[in-house]
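To whoever is on call:

I kicked off a structure prediction for a single chain this morning and the downstream step that reads the tokens threw a length-mismatch warning. I double-checked the sequence; it's 397 residues and nothing unusual in it as far as I can see. Pasting both halves so you can look.
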Amino acid sequence: MLKGKTILLGVTGGIAAYKAAALASALVKQHAAVEVVMTRNATQFVTPLTFEQLTGRRTMVDTFDRNFTHQVEHISLAQRTDLVIIAPATANVCAKLANGLADDMLTTTVLACRCPKLIAPAMNTNMYENPVTQDNLERLRRYGWEMIEPASGRLACGAEGKGKLPEPQMLVEYILRRIALPHDLAGKKVLITAGPTQEALDPVRYLTNHSTGKMGYALAKMAMLRGAEVTLVSGPTAIAPPPFVKLVQVISAQDMFEAVAANAPQSDFIFKAAAVADYTPEAYQDDKIKKQDGSLSIPLKRTQDILKYLGEHRTPGQIICGFSMETRDMLENSRKKLESKHVDMICANNLKVAGAGFGVDTNIITVITRDAAVELPLQSKESAANAILDQAMALGN
């Protein structure tokens, strides 16, 4: 996702510097060009050679290194950098950056950068909570730095508290959110439903379906990466939720309906990707469920039609997209759904086609609107999610 991007990774002199090596490796796996700049104190914890082996690039430490070309190296690097992340950031370096000091290769280069800047403070709890440090961090925020809050736990000094550097994968997520994709959904609110619902038959059993939530979760991730404020209403799934997304967990169809109804009015785009159970038991009564021969007889009623409710209660300018999984007459059935539910888009697929449907990482979708039907090729669900977002945005323009 970071192909063609240059990331300046600043490493300063704290014990958490060892995690920076894992971060550099993770960024290279995302196809980023990683330029590492270390303070001299950082080299006491991890050697420059470690980063050079991981990135395939020279690690910079000395402002006056004579092995560079005749370019002014810190200015040249600043000009080609797409994002700066300093991880870990010591209290000393935070203080320098907050006050515009530039007395080494790292602070000099960063002072010349105009790209997005992230900083991940990591230090002893008392140092982190010291009012001077907090003032410096607040000043950095005012200057446009994004602060990555330290984690809590046992620190290298033996103390318990806030000050740990977050795990490298979380740092990667912060970077992806800032530069992986253009922020063409910035300022927009997106509501997505995902996963199955469960309708209790008795204290042990329930009705559900085969939905895994993968398509809805992919939509939530891609919308977040494109700058949207995302609310994900999810039934029970085994998927870790995307970061930086508001997650509303529900169980039943009624739970999902109430969560959607509460969040829909303020949403610009709504994607109902959840496979909601169509029926729910009227009430649990053991004598009505179990027959003498051991079979079950369960009185059922239809669950609330969430998509139809959204279509009938839409706000001006809102774009609503439903999903249709068919085994036959896909286009015909999906167009009927588009009209009867009063929505703008239906994303349809045929469950009998290999690579589409539940439980797989790919999808084959036809995006149906009132004016057209666009067939998307077999692709990953994340790529399909991006294409669906493109189609929805085209309707909103």
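Update from on-call: the warning came from a stale cache, not from the record. Cleared it. Sanity check on the structure: The mean pLDDT is 90.
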